[in-house]
Amino acid sequence: ALMVGAGITMGLSFGQAALSMCIGYAICVLLMSLMSCLSSDLGIPTVVAASGAFGKTGSSYMVSLVIAICNISWFGFQAVVCGESFAAILNTFGIPLPGVVSTILWGLIMCITAVVGINLIKILNVVSVPALVLILAYAMIVVFQDPESSVKIANYAPATQSTLMASIGTAVGGFVAGSVLAGDVTRYCKSRRDVLLSSVIGVIPMGVGTLFAGSVLAIHCGVVGMDTQSIVTMLASIGSPVLGLLILVLATWTTNVTNAYSAGFGLLNLTRAKDNKQAVCTLTAGVLGTLLTVLGITNYFNDFLNILAAFIPPVAGVVIMDYFVIHKARPSEWRSIEGINWNGPISCIAGGVVALAFPGVLVPTLNGIVVSCVLYLILYPVLSKKKAQAAAAPTVPAEETAEE
Predict the structure, then answer these.
(1) Tens of pLDDT along 307-319?
(2) What domains sit in the chain, N to C, each tagged with a CATH number?
């Protein structure tokens, strides 16, 4: 989120950047709330909740593919941040270590931890996440206590110009995968009120706050840009560089173990492997993510976010349309469909293509959602209705069939 916040500020004034962050996260929270309500109503995880719109086979592959691609890619980005930060810490003590070597080293450490040290990460999370929040809060106090910094931020003019709509898409891309998959956790909520509270209070303050911190620190340090070196420079400039960078190493370490584990779970489902292959799939995901860092994945961070912002929201759009509009949000009427419901993939791809092809028209992310929802509704009588009716039809017990 720090990198996303710094990147958004590349082409907008501080006020415009803050507005795009708020709108982007509002879209994410809306999708998250609806997807979470669906999973909570039905008491099922995202992959099962999507089986009405995509079919059981379709949702299994579609959601698993989203999980695998997103988490492997995020693993790569986080590994670079961790590796560069660790190299900067060593450099402070006069120990040179190339960033690439440090990144590969930490990528492998993260892979191994995801396979054998998951309990250690729970302990590190308790320390690193609150510590990172405190460091960012301290950094904001330091920046805004300096009158010159406050004036610099208020009068900031970007060297290049971007559009508000494109920046909204970037903000959406930074969190949209988490929004769509949130039902895996919120399905345990007892009421929609609990779901909405957890979505709004649990995401907006911390999410927008971290984007905001990334933007402020980038302007303050003069390192506006969507790259890992910007984050290292930002946290190294707040008065206690070693402490800030050490906390960043711990935070990215814990986050990336989760990324590797989730990506491994996605690969497990995609390959239809047995559960005892979870460790192999997790290790494979981590190695692939580390390989992406060597291939220079961070050079395409903005493109990655734009693709996520274009193609993932339509996935949520058709699932939401199927449950809330077609089945009127009634759990008793919703049914899981066997095989593949081609209406879902077709509508999603169409929405994603429209969002990606017309970046300057209104808000591309919303355009993609609207297109996918409308197309799903139009194609429902042709591609989905018979399958839905077959799923809703009562089955005849084997004994009765034999008697006849």
Answers:
(1) 888 888 898 899 9
(2) 2-391 (1.10.4160.10)
